[in-house]
Recover the amino acids of this structure.
């Protein structure tokens, strides 16, 4: 029995050590930025240009922007997903530019060339700074379509509860980071350890703009059930675009661009 208790004690101690280390270094596990200069080769064929704007706490955000082709076209305010940087998204979302939409690819603090460390509070300040940048270009929130890609859904929904945008689009949204973490690390009390929760489920009912949710049925990183929960709690008008054979990173391999434009055109007819 003494040997058993000794082994048990060591096992418990090791488990608690793992929990402590994950708790202390969780932001390094949650945020996976590419820290590199965003070379023009990433966006040279898009018409996007690198711009800079400052946050309320003094961070300068180097992002990518192209104005809309005309005054009556909307601008996409895009908050990208976790890994990589804005350069990796330039060609993915070029189809908006080809249709005449404006596009601001927001680069977060701590990503790409930007200094600072990523955090939920920091992302919010980055988002407000992006809205202010567009305002200086005479683009009001009524002419902004907020697009959240994966992790970017958190800040997109947060801002959509505070501002009346033309529309909000969420690609592979989650209920909260704490639930995603618990699904992936079922053997840890992950739900109780997370600092940056990026809560969506609790606030989605307060969004002020029409909503489009896009989710791949085979998504193994953010399960489709989480996206469905978000959709169910969201107010009308709303639309769910289910991509049956898509996973987390290949949604645009399945001819959904015209379906997105169809959703936006319906909003145009209502407005």
């Amino acid at each position: 029995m003494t040997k058993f208790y000794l082994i048990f004690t060591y096992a418990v101690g090791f488990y608690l050590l793992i929990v402590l280390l994950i708790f202390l270094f969780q932001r390094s596990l949650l945020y996976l930025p590419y820290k590199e200069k965003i070379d023009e080769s990433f966006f040279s064929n898009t018409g996007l240009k690198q711009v800079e704007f400052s946050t309320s706490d003094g961070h300068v955000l180097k992002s990518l922007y192209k104005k809309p082709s005309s005054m009556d076209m909307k601008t996409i305010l895009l908050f990208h997903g976790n890994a990589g940087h804005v350069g990796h998204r330039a060609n993915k979302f070029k189809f908006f530019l080809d249709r005449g939409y404006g596009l601001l690819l927001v680069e977060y603090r701590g990503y790409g060339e930007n200094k600072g460390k990523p955090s939920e509070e920091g992302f919010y300040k980055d988002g407000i700074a992006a809205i202010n940048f567009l305002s200086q270009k005479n683009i009001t929130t009524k002419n902004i379509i907020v697009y959240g890609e994966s992790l970017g859904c958190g800040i997109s929904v947060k801002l959509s509860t505070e501002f009346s945008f033309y529309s909000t689009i969420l690609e592979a949204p989650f209920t909260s980071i704490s639930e995603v973490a618990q699904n992936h690390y079922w053997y840890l009390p992950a739900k109780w350890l997370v600092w940056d929760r990026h809560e969506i489920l609790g606030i989605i009912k307060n969004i002020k703009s029409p909503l489009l949710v896009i989710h791949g049925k085979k998504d193994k990183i953010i399960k489709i059930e989480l996206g469905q929960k978000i959709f169910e709690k969201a107010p009308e008008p709303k639309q769910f675009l289910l991509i049956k054979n898509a996973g987390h990173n290949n949604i645009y391999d399945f001819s959904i661009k015209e379906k997105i434009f169809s959703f936006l055109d319906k909003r145009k007819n209502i407005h």
